[in-house]
Amino acid sequence: MTATDTTTAITVRKVTARIGAEVTGIDLNRELDPATVTALRAAVNEHKALVFRDVDLDDAGQQRFAAHFGPLTTAHPTVPSQPGAPNVLPVDSEDGRANQWHTDVTFVLNPPQLSTLRSIVIPPYGGETLIANSATAYRDLPAPLRAFADTLQAVHTNDYDYAVPPESLDQEARERRSVFTSVTYETVHPVVRVHPLTGERGLYIGGFAQRIVGLSSGESRDVLRLLQSYVTRPENVLRWRWAPNQLVLFDNRITQHYAVDNYDDQPRRLNRVTVAGDIPVGIDGTASRSVKGDASHYTPVA
């Protein structure tokens, strides 16, 4: 795929069959012309995740690039931003490791539509980011299971037990968790979300999805585990090995991601900037609804 106008010619090359493409021929430090933004939007719609090597961006440049796709969110509903950069969230191994499958901030009513990650400090080994295509996962479901998923809604919240019980945490980790849950958010989303631009259906679950509406906690765990197993099938996953000065842009509406904790005690730091999203809608047209927590300080509705 190539998009050309008077100023920019870009090339988009697939990385795997189902997800991911590398983009070349573009300087992300420059203001992008409308044709280039349109081409990038089409590419992320198709490939779900775009990778840019050898980018020369600082925090301001990352924010400027992300803003081509819509208004930015602040860094996070509860977690502090990078000092002096209210739209930038440091994803730093020293502040904990998010080694679980999730879609960014699904516990609010309108989670981000797009996320950008930029490599700052990269360990000498490990530290990959996995990104999964939840649209191909949905298409992989057997027809009876797909029809069942179409009817479901899930409760997403930031107040849950994570992968580590509280009693196993040290004081610093307990304080970080206290900040993350300082305001409790709870939102009901469709389990199958319709992408507003492509019309694709994708499984909209991940780590913040804690319960299926109308089912017990045990039944919910079983159903979510079954559906999640289709998302994380290897053929649906891009495994990106970071190098210095890289940026990844992915569609937060139809992917999940996972930061692999396989780099011992080496430092790892990425900076995240996200673009405000719309309110999810299921296949019957029912929109998500907020149950608890006001996130208007964090994100406008796109």
UniProtKB/TrEMBL annotation:
Residue span, TauD/TfdA-like domain: 12-274
Keyword Metal-binding annotated: yes
GO function terms (MF aspect): dioxygenase activity
Lineage top rank: taxon: Bacteria
Protein keywords: Dioxygenase, Iron, Metal-binding, Oxidoreductase
InterPro entries: AtsK-like, TauD-like_sf, TauD/TfdA-like
Cofactor dependency: Fe(2+)
Record bears the keyword Disulfide bond: no
Family as reported in the entry's similarity comment: Belongs to the TfdA dioxygenase family.
Official protein name in the record: TauD/TfdA dioxygenase family protein
Organism annotation: Streptacidiphilus cavernicola
